[in-house]
Design a protein that fits this description.
The structure is a homodimer of 406-residue chains.
Chain A lengths: L20 E5 L7 E6 L2 E4 H9 L1 H8 L5 H6 L1 H16 L4 H4 L3 E3 L4 E3 L7 E4 L3 H11 L16 E4 L4 E3 L4 E2 L2 E4 L8 E4 L3 E2 L2 E7 L14 H4 E8 L2 E2 H7 L7 H4 L2 E3 L4 E2 L7 E2 L19 E2 L2 E6 L2 E4 L10 H9 L10 E3 L14 H4 L7 E2 L5 E2 L7 E9 L5 E12 L3
Parallel strand pairs in A: 6-22, 8-16, 9-26
Antiparallel strand pairs in A: 1-2, 1-5, 2-3, 3-4, 6-7, 10-11, 12-15, 13-14, 13-22, 14-16, 14-17, 18-19, 20-21, 20-25, 23-24, 25-26
Helix pairs in contact in A: 1-2
Chain lengths: 406, 406
């Protein structure tokens, strides 16, 4: 790991081995600026670039107020950018020119880091899929017939992907309790979270040309944490036969920092074995998942610690499946893992699972009980990954507070 | 109807009562220009605006090479634009200045008219839903339990919405014939069409604020024809439990001309009665559908004439349902009706229905038989609507040719 001249950052969750990318409104500015983070400080890359350090190649990418320009630049530029940022923050020769553009993180208002093109949500945790089966079909639990043959997924609403900190208004909708004769209409009574990991596409692919799982690092720039808010009662009534729609589309929150895949190289871990064997287009000579450790808090109480390393389908396989029919990738595409759930009770990534369908309330540190979310509840999903030399790579967090239905 | 000085256009399907909006690459240009159509000629609105006729308000909207700028401008500007176009094409005082910018339609290469934000596909034809039920569940046909309570819909892939004329490569994917023990992988053997009508959103709505069905004309600029290509075998294997994904996401074709809702005012027709009564958020004092007459040809043979007027759910209700959970609308959102199917056999909007699940081949004019699409097949969906004074409003067409799997 390269040592930084910014004091106290070398052992931190945001050392030079991380260098997440985001967009922030900083003190004295109206316009959003592209930023990175070092320790507890935000570096205004827009202003650094404008000061002349960015050069003709990087400056245009860092002064657009969105990461889309960086995402579109592609793998060679991502590598160049990372090298440049590391030099700025480690070579003392840059200290004087860079220091004026450092700001305490507490003063940075982080905004939506990129414009989402298409949003796809997968369903790639075997334990999650098994739990959902057992909760809804206790007499015949198990995986759907197709589950081990393909990473099941669906398209969500890109226009309602919001940045961490956005309040979540409890949605209205139709629902029909199991024993009711007719559906009713009103605010969702079973508002839930889904703790997920999202992959942000930079380099597009061509319509009609499937992408191999091994090409993940060519196309994906980095990772965000995702809370795929879900209204279980709305979802249950609407989803046959075309899948989730309004039960999901009111909001999906993402963390403001995009963690470059490059920073997560030390966190690569083997995939669990896949049986039955998968079709050729899903095979990779060197398949890997990521050892990301998530933590979910509700009003400050840690309620779950889902381990991303337990996913059945890898991000490379998700990308390959998404494109096997010729569908193209675009800059800004976001595909998420689906709820991350481990084998243990306190590794479940949704309240649906933690409360076993609402039948087993769980207790918060203040003694209050929950099955689903109440108005005023604040949920935060944070995470970290193993970094180089025993350090950690901070993944930031995605937070949202539930407001009463309007 | 206002008479035009452009000869032979008054009684045509593209009179001054239509004025569709599109984007075309015209002879001598590399860049796409915003255009409208009058009779068999395309008017280059970019060049007209640049010539000084556009004024400070309309010129910036007409010179961006995409309709998104027009869409975002909102209802009052749409009205102003329509009035201005009518004046240019009807007042002889403009003849000399406008004429140089008219081009034969045959010389215009029409391109994607707008960038799609989110794409939603509904399932709003009762006859279509009943047919699908009868084909797949002959022992217990009928509608899903929720069908008459809400307009069922799902999100499709915005990034693979393509303009008419784009070739459609037969997609690869997993499928599992009903009696097979294991899934197989290969080109889809059940490639199908869906004849639909799409609504193009101009004015956005605010996150958290549902939109009333009566506000359709405030938000929707116009209408396109849609062919929602579908690989039935891929879809059948993947869609439980999260809905259609790769069976649809390889391509959705739209017609290049966006027909303003204003042009379709004479085509408004009452909705069929809805029983059971719908929830309040789906109620409109003056509900209406549109009397759009579609025609589907396969290699030149007319195989179906689906009547849009038979839809159960109105476009206003679709928009209201889409937003009742607080989901916002964005400029460029496209929501489509789902397959349009009437009561008669030759009014079915998909080959799945025309061949009754592949069990009843139908015959083309050249004597050849079809169940699903063969490589080289060309499908065209065209349409018209009643206009003022006994004229017709042309809806253009959406065409695509199937290429062999690559």
């Amino acid at each position: 790991m390269t040592s930084s001249w910014v004091e106290g950052t070398d052992g931190s969750d945001y050392s030079t081995a991380v260098l997440p990318m985001g967009v922030a409104v900083l003190p004295g500015n109206d316009a959003p600026h592209t930023v990175t983070r070092i320790g507890d400080q935000v570096l205004d890359l827009h202003d650094v670039a404008r000061s002349g350090l960015g050069g003709d190649d990087l400056s245009p990418l860092l002064t657009t107020g969105t990461l889309n320009s960086v995402l579109a630049a592609g793998r060679p530029v991502w590598t160049q950018l990372r090298t440049t940022l590391t030099t700025w923050l480690s070579d003392p020769a840059y200290r004087e020119r860079v220091t004026p553009h450092l700001h305490p993180t507490s003063t940075a208002h982080l905004v939506m880091p990129f414009e989402v093109a298409d949003y796809v949500d997968f369903y790639s945790s075997e334990q999650h899929a098994r739990n959902v089966g057992a909760i809804f079909r206790p007499d015949s639990p198990g995986l759907p017939e197709n589950w081990k043959h393909l990473p099941i997924g669906y398209h969500g609403r890109a226009g309602t992907v919001v940045v961490s900190g956005t309040n979540i208004v409890r949605p209205h909708g139709q629902h029909k309790p199991r024993n009711a004769a007719e559906p009713s209409f009103g605010p969702s009574a079973r508002l839930d979270i889904e703790a997920e990991v999202g992959f942000v596409v930079g380099t597009p692919s061509k319509l009609g040309y499937p992408v191999h799982p091994g090409a993940l690092t060519d196309h994906v720039f980095g990772v965000v944490l995702v809370n795929d808010w879900s209204a279980r009662d709305i979802q249950a009534w609407e989803y046959v036969p075309l899948g989730p729609f309004l039960g999901k589309s009111f909001a999906t929150s993402i963390s403001p920092w995009v963690i470059p895949l490059d920073a997560l190289a030390p966190a690569r871990c083997p995939l669990p074995s896949q049986d039955p064997p998968v079709f050729g287009y899903l095979r990779d000579d060197d398949p890997w998942c990521l050892d990301l450790r998530l933590s979910v808090t509700l009003n400050g109480s840690v309620i779950s610690e889902p381990p991303f390393a337990t996913q059945y389908w890898s991000p490379g396989q998700q990308m390959a499946h998404l494109t096997i029919n010729g569908a193209s990738l675009r800059t800004g595409d976001l595909f998420a893992s689906g709820t991350v759930t481990g084998a243990q009770r306190l590794q479940r990534g949704s309240l649906l699972e933690l409360s076993w369908g609402g039948r087993e309330p769980f207790t918060l540190d203040d003694g209050s009980e929950r099955t689903f979310l109440e108005d005023g509840d604040t949920v935060s999903i944070s995470g970290w990954a193993p970094g180089p030399d025993g350090t950690r790579v901070g993944l930031g967090d995605v937070t949202g507070t539930v407001l009463a239905a309007s």
